[in-house]
Amino acid sequence: MAIKSVEVHHESSEEYDFEEYEDDEEVLDTEHVDVEMKEDDFKTQGANDLDLGDVVGAGFPIHDPSIKWNMMKPLLGERYESPHQLQQCLTNYAIKSGYNIKFAKCDTMRLIAKCGSKMKSQPYPIRVHASWMTQERSFQIKTLVDEHKCVRNFNISNLLSPRWLARHFLKELIMKPNLKCKEMQSIIRTKFHYGVSWSKAYKTRCRAMTIIDGKLTEHYARVWDYCHELLRSNPGSTVHVGVTINSDHTTYFHRMYLCFKAIKEGWKIGCHRVIGLDGSFLKGTRKGELLTAIGRDGNNQVYPIAWAVVDIEKKANWKWFLELLTEDLNLLDGGGFTVISDQHKGLLEATKEVLPNVEHRQCARHIYATFRKTYSGVEFKNMFWATSLSTVESEFLRKIDDIKEVNPNAYEHLTARDPHTWCRVFFRTDIACSTICYKRHKKWESVVCPVAIKKMNRLGEDLRNLNVNPSGPSIFEARNGLEGYVINLQSKVCSCRLWDISGIPCVHAQCAILFTGQDHVQFISEWFNVDRFKAIYANNILPVNGRNLWPRTSYIKPLPPFS
Fold this sequence. Notes:
Distance between the termini: 31 Å
Mean pLDDT: 82
Helix content: 25-40%
Largest sheet: 9 strands, mixed
Strand order of the largest sheet: 1-2-9-10-13-12-11-14-15
Strand content: 15-25%
Number of strands: 19
Number of helices: 18
């Protein structure tokens, strides 16, 4: 698979203090390299100690690990593949029967299990001794005393280790990955009649997820193979992987960027020329940030464009992300495009450098979230959104002055955050998108997407309150008391600017269109055309093989990054 590009960054070597993890390996960070790219009774032998010695294994049963856990029982002479397999069988038997077992010896050569009861009033002769056979490679029970003189005790949670429990939760966690630890405690109490602590439930969950997903180191070690499989199954996609090379030549994962060909081509064909940029925290053993670029299709639905996993949300990572995004979408210097983001300083600076001519809007919801921390209440909320949704400058000035009259400090707070980036009055009018924030289908009869029809109907709710005066075949004046607006049907503009910004006829334009007897739908921007919408999704992201079929690459396997 062809390597797209190579980028090397050198940084000074540093030493880090780190904690030791049971299943994970730690990493250091110095040099960055970016590359694209079921019940039978227990067999009674009496109270005597029966010893097989070292007889030949033929004729003795072989343990079946596939039978149900609560159907397992140790038999004299039974052969196992390892001490661990026998230990699992004895543990299953003890938990099911309620008799405690203590492993006096369990290593690679032999296993000795005794009664684990703590009562000292009488002896408890139950005993199991097993070791390797000399005639074959089998681990065999050679001594078995199965007489239980102790009382059943279902308070033997010491046998319910996270390792044992984890294998009993695989199916539950596969079907319900977000299963809570408290839910697991309840299931354990119901299913096994034992109670465990929250911490043991947590450790059980972690072990089970490791079994399901594989160890963290195994995941990161195959990142190159994964990327090559992505490129094989979806040729033309963009995949960049960044690794960190330490001074001792060990390699660690740093960052990764992905943009599928089907997605970027779909965006170019029919999505609004608006891109939402945001970062969010990743949860898990290894922390990090997920950077995303989101678009809007013709029905105003979220359209994921590209995403990246990085160590931290900072200017350098945003610049790297935007440079790759610019190349994928042919954004050039950003002219004719709009970006919506939060107020992250690194993102703002990176956008200015990579896309100097792009229209940069700030997410009004982020602006208001900051504003309401100091200026809360219904009045301030309504005043803020009235200001943000203003479409003409005179209306904006009036609304912002209302805020100033109520609280000058609130006015200063908002004007210091550049209203040009979060108020509609200052938005461009050629992208047919009035979005000031991003929130988180089909057989259609109309030629335009349903969201446009729905919005147009909502905008026209006050249609009956307007009077229309024609001034030629395409120019009209719509009046409502002292307010008057000029509409040009040929140019598809209105002096209120809402039609210009959104691409959907405002109430004034709808009034003029109704006067001429024409169909309102034909005056909706082509960005909402159903054919364009279908073209966006004409190409699909192709499926990827499981990791058992991924190609093996020759790159050095990276270790997990710092948490």
